[in-house]
Specification:
Layout (H helix, E strand, L loop, with lengths): L4 H4 L3 H13 L10 E3 L2 E3 L9 E5 L16 H10 L4 E7 L1 H4 L1 H4 L3 H7 L3 H10 L8 H14 L3 E8 L22 H14 L6 E5 L11 H18 L4 E4 L24 E8 L12 H21 L4 E7 L7 H17 L2 E4 L8 E2 L2 E2 L18 H7 L17 E6 L4 E5 L6 E4 L7 E3 L5 E3 L5 E3 L5 E2 L1 E3 L10 E3 L5 E5 L6 E6 L5 E5 L17 E5 L5 H17 L1 H7 L5
Parallel strand pairs: 3-4, 3-10, 4-5, 5-6, 6-7, 7-8, 8-9, 9-10
Antiparallel strand pairs: 1-2, 11-12, 13-14, 13-25, 14-15, 16-17, 18-20, 19-24, 21-22, 22-23, 23-24
Helix pairs in contact: 6-7, 9-10, 11-12
Length: 569
């Protein structure tokens, strides 16, 4: 079984405390509405706001937000917040608004006409006030309740005709398809934007999910997406306008040659989807380093380049089988987390729902990608949620702090970062909020920021250490393997390399480098580390301890110190 955070923390109580710290810290208030500043989403005071969202489906045949038969609406909203998410990407079908005969039926009628009497009974028990609301009113009630729990909402037009999304041949995929009339779509967007133009909690609209199918072409994309953007902005100037690409939202490459031409600024965001089953990588049988490098290269070419061009990119769907039994998904997730942390990108997990009223003809279908369990009572996989917490807060961006940039060493397999203990005698994994601040130099040294300590190996299967003599060759750390996530040092001049690793207690070790190439059965996860850039506030106590101990060494051994001064990095 793959090493997870739960296998390196020693007791359930310690695991709970780590999760509690990660999910209950009070974030700074967000001054709405949101806008953009270069590649960042910012609030009304110009501070970075990281969208850490979860998708909540309300676009299937009933056109009712999933789960209302399982738990009270307010309990669901509170579960979202408790898991550390700050927003919900709430899906909706176009016909909810453009077909008045559909949107005006009640929740009860919608469920019962689909043969979902048991679901209707569940709504009567858990959400009696919603049962006889129209579908549109129930949708508004969900948005309102999310807002009352301080959750931002992004409205995503998932599909036209209510149902499961998506198929290349479902006639919902592209402009001109049977169920995708462009004029009707534009009218629906305007209606939805207008409906919520006084709701500050609705911070954005995704104009259409996963354009696809045989009719898709770039010319029509520009024509209609630009018109949709202008209509939404005119109806609701405060919200972010989010544009998806082609090929199931896996291709925005055409924007590298020609950007959209809109009348407004500081409100445009692009979105991209990334799943391990559709990213072109063979996560199950090929070497994970090589697959990760290849896939990230493809994503950079097809969408990631927008970040470098100064446009926000929202990874509005990604997800895994949260039962933890899919080894390919396990490799994919570590690669995803390393990318998300390095780029500090906005994202939305698929999905919140633990089950569906009905999906593709199956009643009560279990959603194995769901953050919540089938009965919506608890997190399906608490270790996954804990791991995800590492990327829920921003690492960089405008107004984040007054700290100068530094490096953090992130371990995607666990969602933790390298920290020092109180005596600076041991390096171990801990919450990234308490990360040690590092400086990765041009000379390939990992220096403890503000000191002359550097990271050094002791040998194979031995803990890594902080040391003073930083000019030795073993104090140089190279990023090797295709993924650039093996951090390697040469112990001697004979080419004997070791890589950073962890033991079962989360202590930072150095071991023989593994799984560098070719072997598709090998799991490199414990040795994957990503050096990322951060400007978060740092823990001054760590710096004070470092400087204090550094001064003590100089006082105790002044002669030796003078001899070694020139050898220090």
């Amino acid at each position: 079984m793959a090493i997870t955070r739960s296998t390196i923390t020693m007791t359930p109580s310690r695991l709970f405390l780590l999760f509690l710290f990660a999910t209950t810290a009070s974030p700074a208030p967000i001054a709405l509405p949101l806008s953009t500043s270069s590649r960042w989403v910012v609030d009304g005071e110009g501070r970075r706001v990281k969208l850490a969202c979860v998708n909540w489906a309300a676009h299937l045949e009933p056109a009712v937000a999933e789960g209302l038969s399982k738990q009270p609406l307010d309990a669901i909203s509170k579960s979202v917040a408790a898991m550390g998410f700050n927003c919900v990407r709430l899906t909706w079908p176009l016909y909810l608004l453009t077909d008045s005969s559909f949107g005006s039926v009640t929740v009860r009628q919608s469920l019962e006409r689909l043969g979902l009497a048991e679901s209707a009974a569940g709504v009567r028990v858990n959400n009696p006030g919603l049962l006889d609301l129209t579908l549109v009113q129930a949708f508004q009630a969900v948005v309102s309740n999310l807002a009352s729990n301080s959750l931002m909402v992004i409205l995503d037009n998932q599909i036209s005709k209510p149902g499961w999304c998506c198929s290349k041949y479902d006639d919902n995929g592209f402009f001109g398809d049977k169920y995708f009339d462009p004029d009707e779509w534009l009218r629906g967007l305007e209606m939805m934007a207008t409906m919520f133009n006084s709701s500050t909690s609705v911070v954005g609209m995704s104009l259409r999910n996963e354009l696809r199918g045989p009719k898709q072409n770039i010319s029509l994309w520009y024509r209609y997406m630009q018109r949709g953007a202008e209509i939404v902005h005119s109806a609701n100037p405060d919200i972010l306008v989010i544009l998806s690409g082609l090929d199931y939202d896996k291709d925005l490459s055409f924007l590298s040659e020609k950007q959209v031409n809109l009348s407004f600024t500081k409100k445009l965001v692009f979105e991209y989807h990334w799943y391990g089953f559709s990213d072109g990588g063979d996560w199950g049988s090929q070497n994970p380093n090589e697959v990760c490098a290849m896939v990230i290269g493809n994503i950079t070419r097809k969408g990631g380049f927008l970040l470098e061009q100064g446009w926000p990119l929202f990874l509005s769907e990604f997800g895994i089988d949260q039962r933890g039994v899919n080894e390919a998904d396990n490799h994919f997730l570590s690669c995803f987390l390393s990318f998300a942390a390095e780029k500090d990108i906005d994202w939305a997990l698929w999905a919140l729902q633990g089950s569906y009223y009905i999906r593709e003809g199956q009643l009560g279908l279990d959603e194995t990608y769901g953050a919540l369990s089938w009965d919506w009572c608890k997190a399906r996989n608490s270790s996954f949620i804990q791991r995800l917490s590492a990327i829920q807060s921003p690492f960089q961006g405008p107004g984040l702090s007054k700290s100068s940039p530094y490096n953090m060493i992130f371990h995607p397999l666990t969602g933790l970062c390298i920290v020092t203990n109180s005596q600076l005698k041991q390096l171990q994994l801990g919450q990234c909020a308490e990360s040690t601040a590092w400086r990765y130099t041009r000379q390939k040294k990992l220096m403890l920021k503000g000191t002359k300590y550097c990271l050094q190996p002791e040998g194979v299967s031995k803990p890594a250490k902080l040391g003073f003599g930083c000019k030795v060759s073993s104090a140089k750390w190279h990023l090797i393997s295709s993924s650039k996530m093996h951090i390697s040092s040469n112990l001697t001049n004979n080419g004997n390399n070791v890589c950073l690793d962890i033991d079962d207690n989360g202590t930072i070790m150095t071991n023989q480098c593994k799984c560098l190439s070719l072997d598709g059965t090998c799991n490199p996860g414990s040795q994957w580390f990503k050096i990322i850039r951060s400007s978060r506030e740092v823990n001054d106590q760590i710096f004070k301890r470092c400087r204090s101990q550094f001064a003590q060494v100089e006082q105790l051994y002044p002669d030796d110190w003078r001899k070694r001064r020139n050898s220090l990095a």
